[in-house]
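Sample pair:
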Amino acid sequence: MAEGREHRENREYRMEELAREAGITVRTVRFYRERGLIPPPRREGRIAWYGDHHLARLRTIAALLERGHTLNGIADLATAFESGRDVGEVLGLGEPTEETPVRLSPEELADYFEGEVTPENLAAALDLGYLAVDGEELVHISRRLLDVSAALVREGVPLATVLETGRRVRAHADALAELFTTVLHTHADPLVEAKLRPLAKSVVEAELSMALDRHLRPDQD
């Protein structure tokens, strides 16, 4: 029966096997379970069975500890992670037509935003829809947004500020999209709808460029 278990797509482990695979002690596994850092095992009579998702969580905990996170902080992150919307909910209307989603482990996300991946920021990103949960992974909705956000943080902008700015930008972007689609549906043949995206983007990029010039250029008076 044990041999059959090992050949399942999702292998199951007794606590001793799980600890050995994770490179930690049984006592540590038990401690993490009591702290809620890993979910409860599946029970079969008096035997507790742990799956690959438990092993992945233990490896994530080890990686986050190596990056300086505390157990309390990891517990808070786990709570935010588990309460987040799953990827099907965020991408329920279809994946973005031009944006490329990015899959990340929690430790990879921590590397992108060193010291800034707090429970509050993670919850804000999940609420905004930038991040979604897919099993033991996170999915960022857009490679471009992920890279720009990380670049802003490296320049010293707090991640909380980046996320709040993103929320405000989204409201303006929705208003602009509504404006352009209204113009199209009122004055143009639906067959030219495919041309709307590049034209609208060109207008917005040009206007934003000129607005940045006005705000960033020193007074010439």
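The first strand starts at residue 12 and ends at 13.
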